[in-house]
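Here is the promised in-class demo. Please do not try to memorize the tokens; focus on the logic of going from shape to residues.
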């Protein structure tokens, strides 16, 4: 893998981090640290993620909002050195619609929000800068890499560390 990476993260990655999921959050933090230390590396996501990452699981379970959580969410989105946000406007919507329609003959069902993420990665890769992979925690979306031409997988660190 090249020294500089361009990853697309679906909202599921950000939610896993904010929810502190033990099986995911440490690796996500490691990836963010790696990206921060690599020249010209970044994480791209759709502005859709800002909407989808509205709360953590604990807030929903307890039906009680925590202002500290909203501050953490805002701090995360302010990490503009490593997190780039692409607007999901009229240049993305037709691609997302096409992905939803193209899934039908395969017997696949693609949700609109997932189509927006895939279309955002596809558009950016084609028109702005290469995207090395799309990271997502829903393995049902992995099959769509044939449609967008970008590898889709769970997040992973670049190199295993022997010392924490």
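The designed amino acids, position by position:
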């Amino acid at each position: 893998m090249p020294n500089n990476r361009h990853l697309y993260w679906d909202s599921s990655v950000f939610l896993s981090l904010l929810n502190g999921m033990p099986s995911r959050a440490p690796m996500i933090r490691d990836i963010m640290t790696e990206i921060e230390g690599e020249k010209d590396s970044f994480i791209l996501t759709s502005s859709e993620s800002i909407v989808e990452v509205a709360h953590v699981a604990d807030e929903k379970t307890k039906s009680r909002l925590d202002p500290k959580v909203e501050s953490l969410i805002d701090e995360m989105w302010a990490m503009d050195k490593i997190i780039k946000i692409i607007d999901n406007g009229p240049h993305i919507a037709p691609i997302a619609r096409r992905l939803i329609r193209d899934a039908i003959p395969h017997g696949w069902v693609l949700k609109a929000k997932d189509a927006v993420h895939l279309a955002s990665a596809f558009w950016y890769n084609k028109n702005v800068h290469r995207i090395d992979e799309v990271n997502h925690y829903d393995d049902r979306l992995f099959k769509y890499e044939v449609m967008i031409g970008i590898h889709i997988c769970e997040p992973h660190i670049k190199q295993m560390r022997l010392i924490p």
